[in-house]
Amino acid sequence: MENEKRGALALENDHLAVTSVSKVISSGDKSIVLMQNKETLTITGEGLSVTEINLDSGRLSATGRVKEIRFSETLTKAGLIKKIFNKIIHRGH
User: Fold this and answer.
1) Are 66 and 19 spatial neighbours (Cβ–Cβ below 8 Å)?
2) pLDDT, tens digit, for every residue of 5-33?
3) Pairing of strands 31-36, 59-73
């Protein structure tokens, strides 16, 4: 089992702080998409701006009006194939 730090997310007024960030996929005034551990974190809103990022410490800070925060697990190819295969098997029963 991998030893991963638990990520945290704090939102106070128009200030957002995220820990355990490993990669920023995209950043714009309407959305910020990043990797936190093995999950994709999508933040949507208005006037979003990344104010600080330090991938060595895994910290990201941003400002703006956050409307939605969505987590989704990132699947590897093997994980995706397994998920599809399980759906096919269970469909037959």
Assistant:
1) no
2) 678 999 999 999 999 999 999 999 999 99
3) unpaired
